[in-house]
# Entry
Amino acid sequence: MRPLRALTMIAAAALAAMPVLAADPADRVMDAIGRSGYSLEERTMLRQEASRALQAGVPADDLEVIVLRSRERGAPEAAVRELVGTAAQALEQKLPVRPVLDRIEQGLAKGVPPERISAASRQLVGHLAAAGPLVDGLANSGLKTMSSREREDAIESVARARERSVPDDVLRKTGELAAKHGRSMAQYDRAVRSLAFFAGSGVPVDRAEPVVRECVERNFTEQDYARLERNASETLRRGGTTDDVVRGAERDLRQGRSSGDGRSGGMQERGAGPGREMGGRGARGR
Amino acid sequence: MPSDHDRELIHRLLDGDLAADERDDLLRRIKTDPDLAREYETLSGPIGLLAGDGRREAPPGFTEAVMQRLPERKPSLGEQLSGFFFGARVLRWNVATAMAGLMLIAAALLLTQLRDGVRTAPLTAAMQGPATVRLSFYAPQARQVAVAGDFNKWSVGSNLMERRDGGIWTIDLTLQPGRYTYMFVLDGTAWVADPGADSYQDDGFGSTNAVMKVSI
# Structure
Protein backbone atom coordinates (compact mmCIF):
# COMPACT_ATOMS: atom_id res chain seq x y z
CA MET A 1 0.00 0.00 0.00
CA ARG A 2 1.30 3.42 -0.85
CA PRO A 3 2.37 5.45 2.16
CA LEU A 4 0.10 8.34 1.18
CA ARG A 5 -2.95 6.07 0.98
CA ALA A 6 -2.09 4.46 4.31
CA LEU A 7 -1.69 7.86 5.95
CA THR A 8 -5.01 9.02 4.52
CA MET A 9 -6.76 5.93 5.88
CA ILE A 10 -5.22 6.38 9.33
CA ALA A 11 -6.22 10.04 9.37
CA ALA A 12 -9.77 9.17 8.27
CA ALA A 13 -10.06 6.50 10.97
CA ALA A 14 -8.79 8.93 13.61
CA LEU A 15 -11.25 11.60 12.47
CA ALA A 16 -14.11 9.08 12.53
CA ALA A 17 -13.17 7.97 16.06
CA MET A 18 -12.81 11.48 17.46
CA PRO A 19 -16.51 12.27 18.03
CA VAL A 20 -17.00 8.89 19.71
CA LEU A 21 -13.99 9.39 22.00
CA ALA A 22 -14.95 13.00 22.75
CA ALA A 23 -18.55 12.20 23.60
CA ASP A 24 -17.73 9.18 25.72
CA PRO A 25 -17.06 10.62 29.22
CA ALA A 26 -20.13 12.89 29.24
CA ASP A 27 -22.27 10.00 27.99
CA ARG A 28 -20.93 7.81 30.77
CA VAL A 29 -22.07 10.42 33.33
CA MET A 30 -25.57 10.43 31.89
CA ASP A 31 -25.57 6.61 31.74
CA ALA A 32 -24.51 6.45 35.38
CA ILE A 33 -27.41 8.77 36.30
CA GLY A 34 -29.73 6.61 34.19
CA ARG A 35 -28.69 3.50 36.14
CA SER A 36 -28.75 5.25 39.53
CA GLY A 37 -32.13 3.88 40.62
CA TYR A 38 -33.52 7.34 41.37
CA SER A 39 -37.04 8.21 40.18
CA LEU A 40 -37.56 9.64 36.69
CA GLU A 41 -38.08 13.14 38.11
CA GLU A 42 -34.93 12.86 40.25
CA ARG A 43 -32.89 11.56 37.34
CA THR A 44 -34.07 14.49 35.21
CA MET A 45 -33.07 17.03 37.85
CA LEU A 46 -29.72 15.33 38.40
CA ARG A 47 -29.07 15.27 34.64
CA GLN A 48 -29.79 19.01 34.50
CA GLU A 49 -27.31 19.70 37.29
CA ALA A 50 -24.72 17.42 35.69
CA SER A 51 -25.15 19.28 32.38
CA ARG A 52 -24.61 22.57 34.20
CA ALA A 53 -21.45 21.20 35.81
CA LEU A 54 -20.13 19.84 32.51
CA GLN A 55 -20.83 23.18 30.87
CA ALA A 56 -18.95 24.96 33.66
CA GLY A 57 -15.96 22.72 32.96
CA VAL A 58 -16.14 20.03 35.65
CA PRO A 59 -14.33 16.97 34.21
CA ALA A 60 -16.77 14.23 33.24
CA ASP A 61 -14.55 11.58 34.88
CA ASP A 62 -14.97 13.28 38.25
CA LEU A 63 -18.72 13.64 37.81
CA GLU A 64 -18.96 9.96 36.98
CA VAL A 65 -17.03 9.08 40.16
CA ILE A 66 -19.30 11.32 42.26
CA VAL A 67 -22.50 9.82 40.82
CA LEU A 68 -21.37 6.21 41.02
CA ARG A 69 -19.86 6.52 44.51
CA SER A 70 -22.95 8.36 45.80
CA ARG A 71 -25.16 5.59 44.44
CA GLU A 72 -22.97 2.95 46.15
CA ARG A 73 -23.35 4.86 49.42
CA GLY A 74 -27.12 5.14 49.00
CA ALA A 75 -27.02 8.94 48.99
CA PRO A 76 -30.35 10.66 48.22
CA GLU A 77 -30.60 12.38 44.84
CA ALA A 78 -30.86 15.86 46.41
CA ALA A 79 -27.52 15.32 48.17
CA VAL A 80 -25.80 14.19 44.97
CA ARG A 81 -27.28 17.15 43.11
CA GLU A 82 -25.91 19.48 45.78
CA LEU A 83 -22.43 17.97 45.51
CA VAL A 84 -22.45 18.32 41.73
CA GLY A 85 -23.80 21.87 42.05
CA THR A 86 -21.06 22.84 44.51
CA ALA A 87 -18.37 21.74 42.04
CA ALA A 88 -20.10 23.70 39.26
CA GLN A 89 -20.37 26.74 41.52
CA ALA A 90 -16.61 26.74 42.15
CA LEU A 91 -15.88 26.90 38.44
CA GLU A 92 -18.61 29.46 37.81
CA GLN A 93 -16.84 31.66 40.37
CA LYS A 94 -13.53 30.99 38.54
CA LEU A 95 -12.09 29.19 41.58
CA PRO A 96 -9.78 26.15 41.55
CA VAL A 97 -12.15 23.18 41.32
CA ARG A 98 -9.66 20.39 42.02
CA PRO A 99 -9.66 20.80 45.84
CA VAL A 100 -13.47 20.84 45.84
CA LEU A 101 -13.71 17.68 43.72
CA ASP A 102 -11.01 16.07 45.85
CA ARG A 103 -12.98 16.76 49.01
CA ILE A 104 -16.21 15.39 47.56
CA GLU A 105 -14.59 12.25 46.12
CA GLN A 106 -12.58 11.69 49.29
CA GLY A 107 -15.59 12.14 51.55
CA LEU A 108 -17.67 9.70 49.52
CA ALA A 109 -14.82 7.16 49.47
CA LYS A 110 -14.36 7.42 53.24
CA GLY A 111 -18.06 6.99 53.86
CA VAL A 112 -18.66 10.47 55.27
CA PRO A 113 -22.40 11.29 55.26
CA PRO A 114 -23.31 13.27 52.08
CA GLU A 115 -24.76 16.23 53.99
CA ARG A 116 -21.46 16.59 55.87
CA ILE A 117 -19.49 16.37 52.62
CA SER A 118 -21.79 18.98 51.12
CA ALA A 119 -21.32 21.35 54.06
CA ALA A 120 -17.53 20.87 54.07
CA SER A 121 -17.35 21.41 50.29
CA ARG A 122 -19.49 24.54 50.38
CA GLN A 123 -17.37 25.88 53.21
CA LEU A 124 -14.24 25.18 51.16
CA VAL A 125 -15.70 27.06 48.17
CA GLY A 126 -16.31 30.04 50.45
CA HIS A 127 -12.73 29.96 51.74
CA LEU A 128 -11.36 29.59 48.21
CA ALA A 129 -13.37 32.66 47.15
CA ALA A 130 -11.87 34.66 50.04
CA ALA A 131 -8.36 33.33 49.41
CA GLY A 132 -8.24 34.45 45.76
CA PRO A 133 -8.04 38.23 46.36
CA LEU A 134 -5.57 37.72 49.22
CA VAL A 135 -3.20 35.69 47.04
CA ASP A 136 -3.60 38.04 44.06
CA GLY A 137 -2.90 41.01 46.32
CA LEU A 138 0.34 39.38 47.47
CA ALA A 139 1.30 38.64 43.86
CA ASN A 140 0.74 42.30 43.03
CA SER A 141 2.86 43.35 45.98
CA GLY A 142 5.88 41.43 44.70
CA LEU A 143 5.48 37.73 45.49
CA LYS A 144 6.97 36.01 42.43
CA THR A 145 4.45 33.76 40.67
CA MET A 146 5.85 31.54 37.93
CA SER A 147 2.64 29.84 36.79
CA SER A 148 -1.13 29.79 37.23
CA ARG A 149 -0.68 26.41 38.93
CA GLU A 150 1.38 28.05 41.68
CA ARG A 151 -1.37 30.64 42.17
CA GLU A 152 -4.06 27.94 42.41
CA ASP A 153 -1.99 25.90 44.86
CA ALA A 154 -1.49 28.98 47.04
CA ILE A 155 -5.23 29.77 46.93
CA GLU A 156 -5.98 26.20 48.06
CA SER A 157 -3.44 26.39 50.88
CA VAL A 158 -4.75 29.76 52.08
CA ALA A 159 -8.31 28.36 51.97
CA ARG A 160 -7.25 25.33 54.02
CA ALA A 161 -5.44 27.57 56.51
CA ARG A 162 -8.59 29.69 56.86
CA GLU A 163 -10.47 26.45 57.58
CA ARG A 164 -8.05 25.91 60.45
CA SER A 165 -8.93 29.42 61.71
CA VAL A 166 -5.64 31.04 60.67
CA PRO A 167 -6.60 34.75 60.38
CA ASP A 168 -6.24 36.60 57.07
CA ASP A 169 -3.98 39.11 58.78
CA VAL A 170 -1.46 36.40 59.64
CA LEU A 171 -1.65 34.94 56.14
CA ARG A 172 -1.13 38.37 54.58
CA LYS A 173 1.79 39.28 56.85
CA THR A 174 3.46 35.96 56.08
CA GLY A 175 3.09 36.71 52.37
CA GLU A 176 4.45 40.21 52.76
CA LEU A 177 7.45 38.84 54.62
CA ALA A 178 8.00 36.27 51.87
CA ALA A 179 7.79 39.02 49.22
CA LYS A 180 10.21 41.19 51.19
CA HIS A 181 12.76 38.37 51.19
CA GLY A 182 12.26 37.70 47.47
CA ARG A 183 10.54 34.34 47.98
CA SER A 184 8.28 32.77 45.37
CA MET A 185 4.56 32.05 45.51
CA ALA A 186 5.44 28.33 45.81
CA GLN A 187 7.53 29.06 48.90
CA TYR A 188 4.72 31.13 50.38
CA ASP A 189 2.34 28.26 49.63
CA ARG A 190 4.58 25.88 51.58
CA ALA A 191 4.81 28.28 54.54
CA VAL A 192 1.01 28.59 54.64
CA ARG A 193 0.61 24.82 54.58
CA SER A 194 2.93 24.63 57.56
CA LEU A 195 0.86 27.27 59.36
CA ALA A 196 -2.26 25.20 58.66
CA PHE A 197 -0.46 22.07 59.82
CA PHE A 198 0.49 23.60 63.18
CA ALA A 199 -2.98 25.12 63.61
CA GLY A 200 -4.52 21.73 62.75
CA SER A 201 -2.25 20.08 65.32
CA GLY A 202 -3.65 22.32 68.01
CA VAL A 203 -0.78 24.82 68.18
CA PRO A 204 -2.16 28.33 68.79
CA VAL A 205 -1.68 30.58 65.76
CA ASP A 206 0.21 33.20 67.79
CA ARG A 207 2.77 30.47 68.69
CA ALA A 208 2.93 28.95 65.20
CA GLU A 209 3.27 32.26 63.36
CA PRO A 210 6.75 33.22 64.69
CA VAL A 211 8.04 29.72 63.88
CA VAL A 212 6.80 29.88 60.30
CA ARG A 213 8.00 33.46 59.87
CA GLU A 214 11.49 32.34 60.84
CA CYS A 215 11.22 29.47 58.34
CA VAL A 216 10.43 32.02 55.62
CA GLU A 217 13.33 34.22 56.65
CA ARG A 218 15.69 31.23 56.61
CA ASN A 219 14.50 30.23 53.13
CA PHE A 220 13.26 26.78 54.22
CA THR A 221 12.96 24.12 51.54
CA GLU A 222 10.20 21.51 51.17
CA GLN A 223 12.43 19.03 53.00
CA ASP A 224 13.05 21.47 55.86
CA TYR A 225 9.33 22.04 56.37
CA ALA A 226 8.64 18.30 56.08
CA ARG A 227 11.27 17.56 58.74
CA LEU A 228 9.80 20.20 61.04
CA GLU A 229 6.30 18.74 60.62
CA ARG A 230 7.48 15.14 61.03
CA ASN A 231 9.15 16.06 64.29
CA ALA A 232 5.96 17.80 65.44
CA SER A 233 3.84 14.77 64.51
CA GLU A 234 6.25 12.49 66.31
CA THR A 235 6.11 14.67 69.43
CA LEU A 236 2.31 14.51 69.44
CA ARG A 237 2.34 10.77 68.74
CA ARG A 238 4.52 10.24 71.77
CA GLY A 239 1.97 12.12 73.85
CA GLY A 240 3.68 15.51 73.87
CA THR A 241 1.76 18.74 74.22
CA THR A 242 1.50 21.58 71.72
CA ASP A 243 3.99 23.45 73.92
CA ASP A 244 6.41 20.57 73.34
CA VAL A 245 5.76 20.88 69.59
CA VAL A 246 6.61 24.60 69.61
CA ARG A 247 9.68 24.08 71.78
CA GLY A 248 10.84 21.30 69.46
CA ALA A 249 10.34 23.51 66.40
CA GLU A 250 12.23 26.36 68.03
CA ARG A 251 15.04 23.94 68.89
CA ASP A 252 15.13 22.77 65.25
CA LEU A 253 15.35 26.37 64.11
CA ARG A 254 18.17 27.13 66.53
CA GLN A 255 20.11 24.13 65.23
CA GLY A 256 19.72 25.37 61.66
CA ARG A 257 17.91 23.86 58.74
CA SER A 258 18.91 20.54 57.26
CA SER A 259 20.30 20.08 53.80
CA GLY A 260 17.35 17.94 52.74
CA ASP A 261 16.50 14.31 53.17
CA GLY A 262 17.59 13.03 49.77
CA ARG A 263 14.22 11.89 48.50
CA SER A 264 15.06 12.71 44.92
CA GLY A 265 16.13 10.25 42.29
CA GLY A 266 15.44 6.58 41.67
CA MET A 267 12.95 4.60 43.67
CA GLN A 268 11.52 6.65 46.50
CA GLU A 269 10.51 4.62 49.51
CA ARG A 270 8.03 5.67 52.10
CA GLY A 271 6.05 4.02 54.82
CA ALA A 272 6.35 2.18 58.08
CA GLY A 273 8.67 -0.76 58.20
CA PRO A 274 8.54 -3.78 60.48
CA GLY A 275 8.57 -3.10 64.17
CA ARG A 276 6.29 -0.08 63.89
CA GLU A 277 2.79 -0.29 65.14
CA MET A 278 0.02 -0.57 62.62
CA GLY A 279 -1.74 2.67 61.89
CA GLY A 280 -1.02 6.07 63.26
CA ARG A 281 -2.52 9.20 64.57
CA GLY A 282 -4.85 9.48 61.59
CA ALA A 283 -6.30 5.96 61.87
CA ARG A 284 -10.02 6.01 61.35
CA GLY A 285 -12.52 3.27 60.80
CA ARG A 286 -15.76 4.30 59.23
CA MET B 1 44.84 86.12 -20.00
CA PRO B 2 41.21 87.06 -20.80
CA SER B 3 39.10 88.33 -17.93
CA ASP B 4 35.82 86.76 -16.88
CA HIS B 5 34.03 89.71 -18.38
CA ASP B 6 35.72 89.08 -21.74
CA ARG B 7 34.77 85.41 -21.60
CA GLU B 8 31.18 86.38 -20.89
CA LEU B 9 31.26 88.73 -23.89
CA ILE B 10 32.65 85.94 -26.14
CA HIS B 11 29.83 83.59 -24.94
CA ARG B 12 27.23 86.25 -25.73
CA LEU B 13 28.88 86.89 -29.11
CA LEU B 14 28.68 83.21 -30.02
CA ASP B 15 25.06 83.10 -28.81
CA GLY B 16 24.29 86.21 -30.93
CA ASP B 17 23.21 88.20 -27.90
CA LEU B 18 25.55 91.20 -28.27
CA ALA B 19 24.43 94.55 -29.52
CA ALA B 20 26.06 95.69 -32.80
CA ASP B 21 28.47 98.20 -31.23
CA GLU B 22 29.50 95.70 -28.51
CA ARG B 23 30.06 93.01 -31.19
CA ASP B 24 32.21 95.29 -33.36
CA ASP B 25 34.29 96.40 -30.41
CA LEU B 26 34.87 92.78 -29.29
CA LEU B 27 35.80 91.57 -32.76
CA ARG B 28 38.28 94.39 -33.07
CA ARG B 29 39.88 93.42 -29.78
CA ILE B 30 40.00 89.72 -30.78
CA LYS B 31 41.96 90.68 -33.85
CA THR B 32 44.49 92.66 -31.86
CA ASP B 33 44.70 90.59 -28.62
CA PRO B 34 46.24 87.09 -29.15
CA ASP B 35 45.00 85.79 -25.77
CA LEU B 36 41.49 86.88 -26.51
CA ALA B 37 41.72 85.40 -30.01
CA ARG B 38 42.84 82.04 -28.51
CA GLU B 39 39.95 82.05 -26.09
CA TYR B 40 37.56 82.79 -28.88
CA GLU B 41 38.95 79.88 -30.90
CA THR B 42 38.66 77.51 -27.95
CA LEU B 43 35.05 78.39 -27.23
CA SER B 44 33.77 78.72 -30.76
CA GLY B 45 34.88 75.12 -31.70
CA PRO B 46 32.46 73.02 -29.50
CA ILE B 47 29.67 75.53 -29.76
CA GLY B 48 30.02 75.63 -33.49
CA LEU B 49 29.98 71.87 -33.59
CA LEU B 50 26.81 71.74 -31.48
CA ALA B 51 25.22 74.39 -33.61
CA GLY B 52 26.02 72.46 -36.79
CA ASP B 53 23.64 69.97 -38.50
CA GLY B 54 25.69 66.86 -37.60
CA ARG B 55 22.90 65.84 -35.22
CA ARG B 56 21.53 62.33 -35.72
CA GLU B 57 18.13 60.90 -34.94
CA ALA B 58 18.08 58.31 -32.11
CA PRO B 59 17.05 54.79 -33.18
CA PRO B 60 13.50 53.63 -32.34
CA GLY B 61 13.11 52.55 -28.66
CA PHE B 62 16.37 54.23 -27.70
CA THR B 63 14.79 56.39 -24.99
CA GLU B 64 12.90 53.46 -23.41
CA ALA B 65 16.02 51.28 -23.46
CA VAL B 66 18.07 53.97 -21.78
CA MET B 67 15.39 54.59 -19.16
CA GLN B 68 15.17 50.91 -18.38
CA ARG B 69 18.90 50.68 -17.81
CA LEU B 70 18.96 53.61 -15.50
CA PRO B 71 19.33 52.57 -11.83
CA GLU B 72 16.19 53.01 -9.72
CA ARG B 73 16.01 56.10 -7.67
CA LYS B 74 17.36 55.45 -4.20
CA PRO B 75 14.62 56.04 -1.63
CA SER B 76 15.23 58.60 1.05
CA LEU B 77 15.96 57.54 4.64
CA GLY B 78 12.42 58.50 5.65
CA GLU B 79 10.96 56.35 2.89
CA GLN B 80 13.21 53.45 3.90
CA LEU B 81 12.10 53.66 7.55
CA SER B 82 8.45 54.01 6.58
CA GLY B 83 8.74 50.95 4.34
CA PHE B 84 10.51 48.95 7.04
CA PHE B 85 7.87 49.60 9.70
CA PHE B 86 4.67 49.91 7.67
CA GLY B 87 5.38 48.01 4.45
CA ALA B 88 3.34 44.82 3.95
CA ARG B 89 5.34 41.60 4.01
CA VAL B 90 4.76 38.03 2.91
CA LEU B 91 6.26 35.47 5.29
CA ARG B 92 7.74 32.53 3.45
CA TRP B 93 8.10 29.48 5.66
CA ASN B 94 8.58 25.74 5.67
CA VAL B 95 8.36 23.06 8.38
CA ALA B 96 12.09 23.18 9.12
CA THR B 97 11.95 26.96 9.60
CA ALA B 98 8.88 26.68 11.82
CA MET B 99 10.50 23.97 13.95
CA ALA B 100 13.66 26.01 14.27
CA GLY B 101 11.57 29.00 15.37
CA LEU B 102 9.70 26.93 17.95
CA MET B 103 12.95 25.53 19.30
CA LEU B 104 14.34 29.03 19.61
CA ILE B 105 11.25 30.15 21.55
CA ALA B 106 11.44 27.08 23.81
CA ALA B 107 15.14 27.68 24.42
CA ALA B 108 14.48 31.33 25.25
CA LEU B 109 11.73 30.36 27.70
CA LEU B 110 13.95 27.75 29.32
CA LEU B 111 16.82 30.19 29.64
CA THR B 112 14.49 32.74 31.22
CA GLN B 113 13.31 30.19 33.77
CA LEU B 114 16.83 29.00 34.56
CA ARG B 115 18.12 32.55 34.88
CA ASP B 116 15.45 33.22 37.52
CA GLY B 117 16.51 30.06 39.35
CA VAL B 118 12.98 28.63 39.42
CA ARG B 119 11.22 26.49 36.88
CA THR B 120 7.48 26.51 36.41
CA ALA B 121 5.69 23.41 37.60
CA PRO B 122 4.11 22.37 34.27
CA LEU B 123 7.38 22.80 32.43
CA THR B 124 9.26 20.83 35.05
CA ALA B 125 6.65 18.10 35.12
CA ALA B 126 6.70 17.82 31.35
CA MET B 127 10.49 17.65 31.31
CA GLN B 128 10.90 15.30 34.25
CA GLY B 129 8.36 12.59 33.47
CA PRO B 130 6.96 10.16 36.04
CA ALA B 131 8.79 8.71 39.02
CA THR B 132 8.26 5.40 40.80
CA VAL B 133 7.44 5.59 44.49
CA ARG B 134 7.37 2.55 46.77
CA LEU B 135 4.96 2.72 49.69
CA SER B 136 5.15 0.16 52.45
CA PHE B 137 2.98 -0.45 55.48
CA TYR B 138 3.19 -2.89 58.37
CA ALA B 139 -0.19 -4.53 58.97
CA PRO B 140 0.17 -8.26 59.81
CA GLN B 141 -3.49 -8.64 60.75
CA ALA B 142 -4.93 -7.17 57.53
CA ARG B 143 -6.39 -9.37 54.79
CA GLN B 144 -6.23 -6.63 52.19
CA VAL B 145 -4.50 -3.25 52.08
CA ALA B 146 -5.03 -0.61 49.38
CA VAL B 147 -3.72 2.89 48.93
CA ALA B 148 -6.23 5.61 48.07
CA GLY B 149 -5.38 9.21 47.34
CA ASP B 150 -5.92 12.18 45.13
CA PHE B 151 -3.84 10.46 42.42
CA ASN B 152 -6.58 7.81 41.96
CA LYS B 153 -9.62 9.88 43.01
CA TRP B 154 -9.60 8.07 46.38
CA SER B 155 -10.51 4.75 44.85
CA VAL B 156 -10.20 1.92 47.37
CA GLY B 157 -9.96 -0.74 44.68
CA SER B 158 -7.54 0.70 42.14
CA ASN B 159 -4.20 0.28 43.91
CA LEU B 160 -4.08 -2.87 46.04
CA MET B 161 -0.85 -3.50 47.93
CA GLU B 162 1.06 -6.78 47.90
CA ARG B 163 1.75 -8.70 51.08
CA ARG B 164 5.41 -9.46 51.76
CA ASP B 165 7.11 -11.48 54.46
CA GLY B 166 6.59 -10.33 58.02
CA GLY B 167 3.23 -8.62 57.48
CA ILE B 168 4.59 -5.81 55.34
CA TRP B 169 2.45 -4.56 52.48
CA THR B 170 4.06 -2.71 49.56
CA ILE B 171 3.10 -1.06 46.34
CA ASP B 172 5.02 0.76 43.60
CA LEU B 173 3.22 3.80 42.22
CA THR B 174 4.24 5.61 39.06
CA LEU B 175 3.42 9.29 39.56
CA GLN B 176 4.25 12.59 37.95
CA PRO B 177 6.35 14.90 40.13
CA GLY B 178 4.11 16.76 42.55
CA ARG B 179 2.46 16.66 45.93
CA TYR B 180 -0.08 13.97 46.78
CA THR B 181 -2.33 13.21 49.73
CA TYR B 182 -3.19 9.58 50.51
CA MET B 183 -4.20 7.00 53.10
CA PHE B 184 -3.95 3.25 53.46
CA VAL B 185 -7.26 1.38 53.47
CA LEU B 186 -7.31 -1.84 55.48
CA ASP B 187 -9.84 -4.50 54.52
CA GLY B 188 -11.87 -1.85 52.67
CA THR B 189 -13.00 -0.13 55.85
CA ALA B 190 -10.23 1.23 58.09
CA TRP B 191 -8.47 4.36 56.83
CA VAL B 192 -4.96 4.88 58.17
CA ALA B 193 -2.52 7.71 57.48
CA ASP B 194 0.98 6.52 56.57
CA PRO B 195 3.06 6.77 59.79
CA GLY B 196 6.18 7.34 57.66
CA ALA B 197 4.76 10.13 55.49
CA ASP B 198 6.63 13.29 54.52
CA SER B 199 3.98 15.38 56.26
CA TYR B 200 0.28 15.40 57.05
CA GLN B 201 -2.73 17.47 56.10
CA ASP B 202 -6.20 17.79 57.53
CA ASP B 203 -8.76 16.11 55.27
CA GLY B 204 -11.64 18.46 56.08
CA PHE B 205 -13.62 15.75 57.85
CA GLY B 206 -11.71 15.52 61.12
CA SER B 207 -9.10 13.05 59.96
CA THR B 208 -5.54 13.47 58.68
CA ASN B 209 -4.15 12.49 55.30
CA ALA B 210 -0.55 11.58 54.65
CA VAL B 211 1.31 13.80 52.19
CA MET B 212 4.07 12.71 49.86
CA LYS B 213 6.16 14.89 47.62
CA VAL B 214 7.32 13.15 44.48
CA SER B 215 10.37 14.47 42.69
CA ILE B 216 12.93 13.18 40.23
Observations:
- Residues 258-266, 272-286 of chain A have pLDDT under 50 and may be disordered.
- Residues 23-140 of chain A form one domain.
- The CA atoms of residues 71 and 151 of chain A lie 35 Å apart.
